[in-house]
Amino acid sequence: MICIFLGPPGSGKGTQAKKLMDKRGWPQLSTGDMLRSAISKGTQLGVAAKGFMDRGALVPDDVVIGLIAERIQAADCSKGFILDGFPRTIPQAEALDRMLGEAGRKVDWAVLFEIPDADLVRRLSGRRTCLNCGAMYHVDTLRPQKADVCDKCASKLVQRDDDRPEVIQKRLAVYHSQTAPLADYYRNQGKLKLLDATQGFDAVTEAVEKALR
Asked: pTM score, two decimals?
């Protein structure tokens, strides 16, 4: 099964993809991870991607699609995989469909994690990160034993720049303008599954399993 997880930043799709990967053995394909891996290995596509990134430019869709085409040839993708963070736009979705079609495959489902913007701002802006070990906390739901101090290594906890409310609002604006229309794209194909991402972690996990059943 080939599944795409759609949703705004902070909706929990990445966490649920990892959960599903552990349970079913489907790899979670993150374009960011694939780009870093290709660059570190010095592959042809990695070199091409690095050239764009070094100039501060977006990596073209055809390069990203090429990375995905290479990755899904691996044995661990034979029974299925989860795409997390791609596609982000309609042209990317169309390119993905063409690439998969040439390989005799197709997207089976697109699961949309729905959550109000206000909930996302509260969820993301409350996150705190350890500068030393990277451990994550939350001012409401996962507080450290001592304020602003990591339980694991006693280093300082900070709010990352991209977790500040004004930055989150900008990220959401980009999502709504570019990525949200993908819902209609997959709805028109009869492949869209809607999921209430405001529920607790276990409830969302159960909803994901139900959507893919």
From this structure: 0.82
